[in-house]
Amino acid sequence: MTAAEPAELRPKRVAVSFSEREHAALQEMAVRERIPLAKAVLRIVRGHLATGRPAPAPTGEPTGESASASPGWLPPIEQAKYAEWARNRAAAVHLLLDRYPDELAGLPDDWHRVAAVREQLWALSWWRDLLDSGTYDDPRMELAFAASLGDFARYLRERRRPGARRRD
Question: What is the dihedral of CA 75, 68, 65, 145, to 10 degrees?
Answer without folding.
Answer: -40
